[in-house]
Design goal:
It is built from 15 helices and 19 strands. With about 400 residues, it is of the alpha/beta class. The protein folds into two domains: about 170 residues, Rossmann fold, CATH 3.40.50.1950; about 210 residues, CoaB-like (Rossmann fold, 3-Layer(aba) Sandwich), CATH 3.40.50. The protein binds ligand PMT.
Length: about 400
C-alpha cells in the first residue's frame, strides 16, 4: 500500500477528484486529500472524506487540522503527491515557490515526486504565463499529465480538460512502482564533447544531451542517486541530480572515472568525440596565412571501454549512434567495448536520435538474438523503458 497525497484545487473538474480517490483506494493506496477552499465550493469535504476514509485538510492555520497531522508531517508522509485538477492559480503559486496556502506549502515541503493534472479554460491554459509556469515546473521534474482537448465546461472548445482519471492513475503508479532504483548510484554521461582547435574554433557534434538528461531524470525519479557528467548543453539540471559540467572528452573521462567508485550503474549516452586536434593553436588560426588547412587529429580515449575494464561490479550500458547497418554495428560495439547492454539508435533520421525530443532504440543484450525494440516515443518514455530493462538485468 502506497501513500498518495491528493491535492484538489478550485475548478469544475474538482468533482472528478472523487473518482480519482476511489480509483486509488481500489488499487490499495492510502489517500489523504488536501483541498483548497475554492475546491470545496465545487465538491464537498464530506464526499472526499467518505471516499478517502481520512479527514480532508484545507486550512493552513487551522488548529484542529494541524493537531491531527501537521502540514510538514503530511508532506513527509506522501510517497507521491498529485494535484488534480491543478488550476492556473495553483500552477503559478507552485512555480514561483509561493507557500501561501496549505496545498502549495505542502507541495513545496514534500520531497516526493509531484504530478499535476492541469484543468482550466483554454485561454487561461494558452496564456504565456501559464505556459511559462508549466515549462518551469516540467524542467524541475514535475510530471505534467494533460490537459486533454475538447469541449470545456465554460463553453469553449480546446485544450484545458482534465485528462481521463485512468491516465492520472497511470502516472501515479509509474511514480510509485519504480522506487526499485533506491539502492543504485547511476552515473550518466550526456551531450557532446567539444574539442578546441584554437581559442575560437571547436570540433563537436549534434548531441543536445536530451537523451542522457532524460535517463538521469528518470533514474532520479525512481529513487537513484544520480551523477550526470554533461558536455556543453542548454538543458536544466533534472531535479535531484548531481551535475558535473565538462567540455572535452578528456575532461569527461576524468569526471567519469572520479565518480566511478560510487556508481553501481553506468549509462554512456554522451556523444564523445573520437578525435581531437594533436596540438591546439594558442592563437586564432589566420585565414590569410593559408589556402587550405590540414588538422592533425589524434584519437581520444575510449571512455566506455576503459570504464568496463575498471574493477568493481557495476552494470555498464553503452549507446551506439549508427547511420547504417545499425544492429550489426551496434552488436559489434557491444562485443568490442565489453559492456552489458548496448542501446542502438539511428542518428541519420530527422525524427529520432540527435537533438529532437523523440527517439527509437533497440536494446541489445549479450545473446546474439537478444534485441528488444523500443518503439518511437519521447526521450522520457524511451528512458523509462531502458531503465526497466536495466532493472530486469540487475534483478536476474
Ligand atoms: O543528445 P541527444 O541529442 O539527445 O542525442 C542522443 C544521442 C544520439 C547522442 C544518444 O542517443 C547516443 O546515441 N549516444 C551515443 C553517441 C556515440 O558517441 O555513439 P558511438 O557509437 O560513437 O559510441 C559508442 C559508445 O562509446 C557510446 O556510449 C559513447 O558514449 C562511447 N564512447 C565513444 C567514443 C569515445 N571516445 N569514448 C566513449 O566512451
Amino acid at each position: 500500500m502506497s501513500r498518495v497525497l491528493l491535492g484538489v484545487t478550485g475548478g469544475i473538474a474538482a468533482y472528478k477528484a472523487c473518482e480519482l480517490v476511489r480509483g486509488l483506494r481500489m488499487r490499495g493506496h492510502e489517500v489523504r486529500v488536501v483541498a483548497t477552499p475554492n475546491a470545496l465550493r465545487f465538491v464537498s469535504s464530506l464526499t472526499l472524506q467518505t471516499l478517502s476514509g481520512q479527514a480532508v485538510r484545507s486550512e493552513l492555520f487551522s488548529l484542529n487540522e494541524e493537531s491531527e497531522i501537521s502540514h510538514i508531517e503530511l508532506a513527509d508522509w506522501a510517497e507521491v503527491s498529485v494535484v488534480a485538477p491543478a488550476s492556473a492559480g495553483f500552477l503559478a503559486r507552485i512555480a514561483h515557490g509561493m507557500a501561501d496556502d496549505l496545498l502549495a506549502t505542502i507541495c513545496l515541503a514534500a520531497r516526493a515526486p509531484l504530478i499535476v493534472a492541469p484543468a482550466m479554460n483554454v485561454n487561461m491554459y494558452r496564456h504565456p504565463a501559464t505556459q511559462a509556469n508549466l515549462d518551469l515546473l516540467g524542467k524541475r521534474g514535475v510530471v505534467i499529465v494533460g490537459p486533454d482537448t475538447g469541449e470545456l465546461a465554460c463553453g469553449w472548445e480546446g485544450e484545458g480538460r482534465l485528462v481521463e482519471i485512468e491516465k492520472v492513475l497511470g502516472a501515479i503508479e509509474q511514480q510509485l512502482a519504480p522506487g526499485t532504483y533506491r539502492d543504485e548510484v547511476v552515473l550518466v554521461t550526456a551531450g557532446p564533447t567539444v574539442e578546441a582547435v584554437d581559442p575560437v574554433r571547436v570540433l563537436t557534434n549534434r548531441s543536445s544531451g536530451k537523451m542522457g538528461f532524460a535517463l538521469a531524470e528518470a533514474a532520479a525519479r525512481r529513487g537513484a542517486e544520480v551523477i550526470l557528467v554533461a558536455g556543453p548543453v542548454a538543458l536544466a539540471t533534472p531535479y535531484g541530480v548531481e551535475r558535473i559540467d565538462v567540455e572535452s572528452a578528456e575532461q569527461m573521462r576524468e569526471a567519469a572515472l572520479q565518480a566511478l567508485d560510487r556508481a553501481t550503474i553506468v549509462i554512456m549516452a554522451a556523444a564523445v568525440a573520437d578525435y581531437r586536434v594533436a596540438t591546439r593553436a594558442s592563437q586564432k588560426i589566420k585565414r590569410h596565412q593559408r589556402e587550405a588547412l590540414t588538422l592533425e587529429l589524434v584519437r581520444n580515449p575510449d571512455i566506455l571501454a576503459e570504464l568496463v575494464e575498471r574493477e568493481g561490479r557495476r552494470l555498464v550500458v553503452g549507446f551506439a549512434a549508427e547511420t547504417e547497418r545499425m544492429l550489426e554495428n551496434a552488436r559489434d560495439k557491444l562485443a568490442r567495448k565489453g559492456c552489458d547492454l548496448m542501446i542502438a539508435n539511428d542518428v541519420s533520421r530527422s525524427d529520432a536520435g540527435f537533438d529532437v525530443d523523440r527517439n527509437e532504440v533497440w536494446i541489445l543484450g549479450p545473446g546474439h538474438e537478444d534485441v528488444e525494440p523500443v518503439p518511437a516515443a519521447s526521450k522520457r518514455e524511451v528512458a523509462e523503458r531502458i531503465l526497466d530493462r536495466i532493472r530486469r538485468v540487475r534483478d536476474a
